[in-house]
Design brief:
There is one protein chain. The longest helix is centred in the last third of the chain and has 20 residues. The chain folds into two domains: 224 residues, Aldolase class I (TIM Barrel, Alpha-Beta Barrel), CATH 3.20.20.70; 70 residues, no CATH class. The chain is globular and about 65 Å long. The chain contains 15 helices and eleven strands.
């Protein structure tokens, strides 16, 4: 069994957290991950109250283990944060914005504050706000994120915010990625795209199959899916999605798309409803090559966790028991 400050904080069997993917990580998926020994996180996204009430009621019904909720910080207000905290989650994840205005409120509910960041400045800001746990998200991640790669970002954040524990995110989809994250100094991993293609995910079945059929080279970071939806995302964040005909047509033509957003936006929303993913976005990360089929979430948690543990045990055998001098230059 792998024991880290993250597993001890929430009483987990595995150092795995479900990425709180908006419109994908609902109550059923979060509960399945928690019941399997990870930390399930509902993707609260932009904070739609009716959807939140439905999904948070569901996760409450389905698990007695630790679970949480993620929100997009810049898009919510205090009323949404209070609504979420009223369901008594064990953790609240705030991403993409300054968490300080909400940190005292989160702490007053006895809830752990998790902050997802994309650079060292964000990590220090999160620590100053009182984050209990910080997620260092690399650009390989699906959905919205920054420009720094996971491999150098994670240890840099670990060093910058010690002793605050850190999770790694971005490009992790199996036990090898989890084991690597732990060796970088993280206390676990936040995993999204792999759970997007799970049976319990709220994603359209065609979108799940798109993920299973694609590869990491078939993704791109872009703003067009935000422009067409009329979402004012801060300039620092782009979204990684599967390449499709809509992206190929409009990427690099964001200004023109913005002038036609009213009409094209209606067409785009119709594509979302119809499951037309030549137009609609499938948010996905570069770990796509490691995902070949849609699977049940509990099996994924167990397989990823057990594989990481086996790899760490195997790695220890690579170290010679013979004592000798190590000269570092």
């Amino acid at each position: 069994m792998i024991v880290t400050p993250f597993t001890e904080m929430f009483g987990l069997r595995y150092p795995i957290a479900l990425a709180p993917m908006g419109s994908v990580a609902g109550g059923l998926l979060a509960a399945a991950v928690s019941e399997a020994g990870g930390l399930g996180l509902v993707g609260g996204g932009y904070g739609e109250p009716g959807w939140l009430r439905e999904q948070l009621s569901l996760v409450q019904q389905r698990t007695r283990r630790a679970w949480g909720v993620g929100l997009i910080t810049w898009s919510v207000d205090r009323s949404i944060v209070e609504l979420v905290l009223g369901f008594r989650p064990h953790a609240l994840v705030l991403s993409f914005g300054d968490p300080a205005p909400y940190a005292p409120l989160v702490k007053s509910f006895g809830c752990k504050l998790i902050c997802q960041v994309q650079d060292l400045e964000g990590a220090r800001q999160a620590q100053a706000a009182g984050a209990d746990l910080i997620v260092a998200q690399g650009t390989e991640a699906g959905g919205h994120g920054g420009a720094r790669a996971t491999l150098p970002l994670v240890p840099a954040v670990v060093d910058a915010v010690a002793p605050t524990p850190v999770l790694a995110a971005g490009g992790v989809a199996d036990g090898r990625g989890l084991a690597a994250a732990l060796m970088l100094g993280a206390t676990g991993a936040l995993i999204g795209t792999r759970f997007y293609a799970s049976e319990e995910s709220l994603a359209h079945e065609r979108a799940k199959q798109c993920i299973a059929d694609a590869g990491g080279s078939l993704t791109a970071r872009t703003r067009i899916f935000d422009v067409v939806r009329g979402l004012a995302w801060p300039a620092a964040y782009t979204g990684r999605a599967l390449k499709n005909r809509f992206l190929e047509r409009w990427h690099g033509r964001e200004a023109e798309l913005a002038t036609r957003e009213a009409r094209i936006g209606v067409e785009y929303q119709a594509a979302v409803r119809d499951g037309d993913f030549d137009t609609a976005a499938v948010w996905a990360g570069e770990a796509l090559d490691l995902i070949r089929r849609v699977e049940r979430a509990p099996a994924l948690v167990t397989h990823i966790g057990d594989e990481a543990e086996a790899l760490l045990r195997r790695g220890a055998r690579l170290v010679s028991p013979t004592q000798g001098e190590l000269h570092v230059h």
